[in-house]
Predict the structure.
Amino acid sequence: MARSSLTLALVQQSDQGNTAANLDDCEAAIRAASIRGCSLVLLQELHNGPYFCQTEDPSLFDMAESIPGPTTERLSSLARELELVIVGSLFERRAPGLYHNTAVVLDADGSLAGIYRKMHIPDDPGYYEKFYFTPGDLGFNPVDTAVGRLGVLICWDQWFPEAARSMALAGAQILLYPSAIGWNPDDTTEEQQRQLQAWETIQRAHAIANGLPVGACNRVGYEADPSGVTSGARFWGSSFVCGPQGEIIAQADDQSPKLLVAEVDLGRTEQVRRVWPFLRDRRIDAYGDLNQRYRD
Amino acid sequence: MARSSLTLALVQQSDQGNTAANLDDCEAAIRAASIRGCSLVLLQELHNGPYFCQTEDPSLFDMAESIPGPTTERLSSLARELELVIVGSLFERRAPGLYHNTAVVLDADGSLAGIYRKMHIPDDPGYYEKFYFTPGDLGFNPVDTAVGRLGVLICWDQWFPEAARSMALAGAQILLYPSAIGWNPDDTTEEQQRQLQAWETIQRAHAIANGLPVGACNRVGYEADPSGVTSGARFWGSSFVCGPQGEIIAQADDQSPKLLVAEVDLGRTEQVRRVWPFLRDRRIDAYGDLNQRYRD
């Protein structure tokens, strides 16, 4: 089987305080990735601003923008100039009162190759996303680009094997997760480590179950809770790329911004699936309960 | 939420050369587990004999037995005498020419609480299970016992998130995997380690995705290929128990038989699911593709 090498970059950032500074930061990282030979750049979830979902504040909907819109235009120009694919993550204003958490894929010619609207929306203390984001209505459809068919999912999706599997069954060649997840500073160190390990483990498992490489790009740094109700969030970074057996290829630390560059061989998927042919053996005659909430 | 403590034992064994010796070994381990306060014992896959699927030999069907039959009778007596639950793994003869890889659950009163017939059947060099085992036709139904509702799956099932999820949706309180998986001695050390890590990672991920503890009991030791075609299998042991965040509670090594005892708190599942409420957020309106082979 032919090697099919892809050099990708994950941009692990901390919030710079305003949209212009964050986008400048993104652009600098994308240019650096280009110089290092990357043909695909994955940005973190909601990279234009702070992780604003720590409180429920109706005025924050002003941060949302249309797609296409100013950010996709800027990313599009960069993609075209540098001839690489960019996966961004935006707060989408679709209509008055209708907003989504949406990933955008800019192809190497600058065109908007496709979008993915976050399907699984979390809601727990400090992550009030059900207030801001309407659940996605586009399903699990990978996006075709110059570097391959990208299975883009977003953060909370990472806990759902169903999402990864659906992307794999639709022919995704790599799974990509823009993410914004961190520790509650009030939790014990043991609980914090269990959470980080679980986050890494389950995404590596999506690689294994589907024989696909995975890239997870997470926010880093402390962000205060504007309402003062909680102790804020310490985003744990730890962005990583793993291969189709779940083996870690590259990983950032949990403290600092990082341009993480990794090379993956998309051709290894077929090799791995020949040895572990899970797609062959799925019991599609017996999975009916997966479409149910619970069996009572 | 109330603590609900369960002390379980995993019996990691190597083949003793004949059925009588293997069953004596099982009995000794079960008695030792009872003395250590265990109320649940999980045996490894096909514990009565060698892992015979390294070759395709019609005469080996003679090893199959009925359920109930001699082994369930013996395990039943032990379960009743020691007042504990035993999960065994047998080569089931259901009818002439119809055989399954079947787990049996003996309740603490000695009754046969239920069985599970392996749903996902592997077939790759050295693991010719599709020759011996008809795929299970009982679906993913946990078994109610004196110690809780057990989600029993078998070996190859471990690679399928669908199986674990189906058991969780049916109310399983713990996932149990009797297993017989090992290294091809001809593979590189790097490949062997990727495989072992993948095996551990994906089962820990089932714990995480479903907020359930997991016990995986695997065979250990070298077994030659009777046909001489391959270099045989070195079963990698490494049996483990993890909690509902995928955190390892206890693990055996990859070299030697082991009675692995661990205590799990079944009450932690509800705590963990309140913080990570994945069952709340599953997009059951959008999982239709999971019942398809592939999207062409």
